[in-house]
């Protein structure tokens, strides 16, 4: 007889095995498909200072004029909007990229570039700030720039420009909305005060004007002639050899004695500029004596400025350090930059304090 029943049972088992395998595959595929459908990361909300519609009170539109070439170093803005018949403009950079080939952080570089673009004398950026704004303007044009760190840790920036209209009623309406912009800026400045202005700090601020710079605790950093520099203040002290306040009292033997002391204190130094009396900013002008020395020590070029004060008030000392790199290993070229910056600092002190 033909064994039909066993064949039917085998066929039934095969069907159940295939169905079970399909169910297993479906169960395994479900998490994979779900993973493939993960929601896109949420876009950070637009900060108040960059909310163009809310602050301008107008529908945002495209800008007719090309972007200011002075802003080219900031990179492509995330958003650029215009309104009020092209009389108000906002540029917003959601994430400031880290600048290449510089020793300063993105916020300090962006702060410098925006200040240059709006022709403002901005104070040095501070590493302690979470954000800062600066504004300039006349009756014909108002500008406001801001740099801040968002909740995601990214540094952002914005620039607002307004050209008031000649129509009185419209101008008043525009001014009201511009006031909203400035109020949003005040929220960024809150809790970020300017540092205390010591006499040496004021002189350095004047001498480094127009250069990328920042305050990092007790160290002041800036870039001059594509060279990274830092000023490590030494405060006020005395020296073993008397250094006179008046240039008329400065003697060669004093300078020779100081150079001997420095050489003993720094036996591994290569002296690129020995202890020297500086000339005043204006030839023949009667100013206080100031001295500098520049040397190479290890992989750094260092320079120091000595400013004797009147009477027994001591000597103000300031040291500038610049680290050598493989790309710029010439100590003589670096020494020239350090000497120039020390001289500029000394002359700025003359203007402010003598």
CATH architecture of the largest domain: 3-Layer(aba) Sandwich
Give the CA-CA distance, first to last residue. Answer: 126 Å
The H/E string reads HHEEHEEEEHHEEEHEEEEH
User: Which CATH C-level class of the largest domain is it?
Assistant: Alpha Beta
CATH topology-level fold name of the largest domain: Protein Transport Mog1p, Chain A
What is the radius of gyration computed over CA atoms, rounded to a whole number of angstroms?
32 Å
Total strand segments: 13
Average pLDDT, rounded to a whole number, is: 87
The percent range for strand residues is: 25-35%
Described by the principal axes of the CA atoms, the overall outline is elongated
- Give the low-pLDDT segments: 1-35
Domain module tally: 2
Describe what this molecule looks like in 3D.
Keywords: Signal. This is Secreted protein. It comes from Massilia pinisoli. The chain has helices at residues 4-36, 52-56, 106-117, 168-189, 199-207, 252-265, 331-353; strands spanning 79-83, 88-93, 125-126, 131-137, 142-149, 155-162, 213-216, 219-224, 227-237, 270-277, 291-297, 300-308, 315-323. It starts with a helix and ends with a helix. With 354 residues, it is an alpha+beta fold. The chain folds into two domains: 48-189, no CATH class; 199-353, Protein Transport Mog1p, Chain A (3-Layer(aba) Sandwich). It has seven helices and 13 strands. A hairpin with a 5-residue loop joins β5 and β6 (155-162).
């Amino acid at each position: 007889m033909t064994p039909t029943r066993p064949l039917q049972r085998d066929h039934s088992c095969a069907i159940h095995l295939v169905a079970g395998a399909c169910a297993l595959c479906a169960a395994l595929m479900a998490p994979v498909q779900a993973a493939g459908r993960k929601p896109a990361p949420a876009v950070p909300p637009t900060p108040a200072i960059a909310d163009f519609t809310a602050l301008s009170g107008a529908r945002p539109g495209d800008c007719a004029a090309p972007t200011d070439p002075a802003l080219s170093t900031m990179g492509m803005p995330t958003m650029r909007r215009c309104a009020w018949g092209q009389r108000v403009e906002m540029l917003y950079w959601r994430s400031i990229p880290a600048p290449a080939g510089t020793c300063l952080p993105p916020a300090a570089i962006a702060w410098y570039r925006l200040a240059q673009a709006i022709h403002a004398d901005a104070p040095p950026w501070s590493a302690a700030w979470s954000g800062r704004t600066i504004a300039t303007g006349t009756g014909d044009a108002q500008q406001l720039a801001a740099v801040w760190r968002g909740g995601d840790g990214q540094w952002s920036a914005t620039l607002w420009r307004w050209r008031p209209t000649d129509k009185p009623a419209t101008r008043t309406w525009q001014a009201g909305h511009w006031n909203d912009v400035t109020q949003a800026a005040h929220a960024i400045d809150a809790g970020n005060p300017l540092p205390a202005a010591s006499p040496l700090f004021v002189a350095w601020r004047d001498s480094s004007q127009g250069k990328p710079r920042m305050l990092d605790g007790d160290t002041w950093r800036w870039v001059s002639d594509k060279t990274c520099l830092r000023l490590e203040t030494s405060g006020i002290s005395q020296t073993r050899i008397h250094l006179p306040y008046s240039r008329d009292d400065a003697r060669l033997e004093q300078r020779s004695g100081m150079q001997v002391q420095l050489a003993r204190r720094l036996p591994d130094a290569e002296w690129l500029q020995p202890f020297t009396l500086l000339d005043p900013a204006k030839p023949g002008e009667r100013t206080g004596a100031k001295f500098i020395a520049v040397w190479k020590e290890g992989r750094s070029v260092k320079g120091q400025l000595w400013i004797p004060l009147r009477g027994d008030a001591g000597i103000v000392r300031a040291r500038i350090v610049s680290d050598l790199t493989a790309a710029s290993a010439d100590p003589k070229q670096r020494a020239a930059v350090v000497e120039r910056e020390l001289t500029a600092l000394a002359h700025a002190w003359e203007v402010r304090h003598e």
